[in-house]
Design brief:
Elements lengths: L11 H13 L11 E6 L3 H15 L2 E6 L2 H11 L7 E4 L2 H9 L9 H6 L12 E13 L23 E4 L4 H14 L1 H15 L3 E2 L2 H9 L5 E5 H10 L5 E4 L11 E9 L6 H12 L1 H11 L2 E2 L25 H16 L3
Parallel strand pairs: 1-2, 1-3, 5-6, 5-7
Antiparallel strand pairs: 3-9, 4-7, 4-8, 4-9, 4-10
């Protein structure tokens, strides 16, 4: 009996998107046989599950998702070794993926589909991990309290004039750690330390575990400014279009470092017993179908050059990104954490 793809019930918006993608002919072919993949995911389930549901709808391959903090998942993979049930690792931070690669946890991939779809700066040299979507560390501001030209750089938020007027992520945030790593590489330890001390003073108690809480605080006028990944603001605006919150893409001035970029990405666990199915998922995620879902549902920047971002986002060609290689985020992790601890960010 020939294999027939199964279409389980999905949200109406996903189904509509799937039909459009089928019509456009950009879905991957159905798998020859149903299978199951186990994914360790450092991403929020609500952000990644719709994309994985689309893959299951197209292939019949079921997904078992184990979601936790990225650091915990990498440590778990180290502890489990070849006994792990995980087939793939998905994280929201290139540095964590590179740490997993250098620990020998991920399988190098020789896949033309990856090299055609994702530019080399967004994947490991051996393709053991591959970026899926881009995010930028931006300044969110309350448009009734701040004018866009009042802040040029992230470093401006350390200025005493913003005392008690900013909200920041806590010290355990991978976004914070990656951002500080880029600043450390660009400006050196002393200037980065001054920046962190200023953030600590100006934020005081406005330190949050979740980026959505920072966006809420800015939108409600509890603070004037906050540092988050760009997509949190656009998701908030999609739900509440009248909210007085806007995005400022920082560090674009002459001599500025450029906006700090990171990527969510995926790697196949070295000991997987389901390599063909795992490769099929990676192929789907980097192809136009998966990239379009990341762009439309999550408000992230697609990495595939032929897939456009949501038109609400700042046009990607209109701003510069910092030049620190994503692979360098791994080796910067320890000195960054030491500096954050030294300053006493909580």
């Amino acid at each position: 009996m020939p294999f027939v793809c199964s279409l389980p019930p999905l949200r109406q918006t996903i189904l509509s998107g799937l039909l459009l993608l089928f019509a456009a002919g950009i879905f991957v072919p159905c798998a020859p046989a149903a299978d199951k993949l186990t994914i360790y995911s450092g991403r929020s389930e609500r952000l990644i599950k719709p994309v994985l549901d689309a893959f299951t709808a197209n292939t019949g391959i079921q997904i078992e998702l184990l979601s936790s903090g990225t650091t915990e998942l990498v440590n778990r993979l180290k502890a489990e070794g070849d006994r792990t049930s995980a087939d793939l690792l998905i994280t929201n931070d290139a540095g964590s993926l590179e740490l997993a690669r250098t620990a020998g946890l991920l399988r190098p991939l020789n896949m033309r589909e990856i090299e055609r779809a994702i530019p080399s700066q967004f994947r490991a040299p051996d393709n053991a991990w591959v970026g899926l979507s881009g995010r930028f560390w931006i300044v969110a501001y309350n448009s009734t309290m701040v004018k866009a030209d009042q802040v040029k750089s992230l470093l401006d938020l350390a200025d005493p004039k913003w005392k008690d007027k900013i909200a920041i992520p806590n010290s355990g945030s991978e976004y914070l750690q990656a951002g500080v790593s880029v600043i450390l590489t660009t400006y050196g330890e002393e200037k980065t330390k001054q920046f962190l001390q200023g953030l600590k003073t100006n934020a005081d108690t406005q330190v949050y575990q979740k980026s959505s809480q920072i966006v809420e605080a800015v939108a409600k006028g509890q603070v004037a400014l906050g540092i988050v990944n760009h997509y949190y603001v656009y998701r908030h605006l999609a739900a509440q279009p009248e909210a007085p919150i806007a995005v400022l893409m920082p560090d674009q001035q002459e001599g500025g470092m450029g906006a700090i970029m990171n990527v969510a990405g995926v790697g196949i666990v070295k000991s997987t017993k389901h390599l063909d199915s795992a490769k099929l998922l990676v192929e789907f995620l980097v192809a136009k179908a998966g990239q379009k879902l990341f762009a439309d549902l999550d408000k992230e920047y697609p990495l595939h050059p032929d897939v456009k971002a949501d038109p609400a986002l700042v046009e990607r060609k209109s701003f510069r990104a910092a030049l620190v290689p994503l692979t360098k985020l791994a080796e910067l992790r320890e000195p960054t954490l030491a500096l954050i601890e030294q300053v006493g960010l909580r």
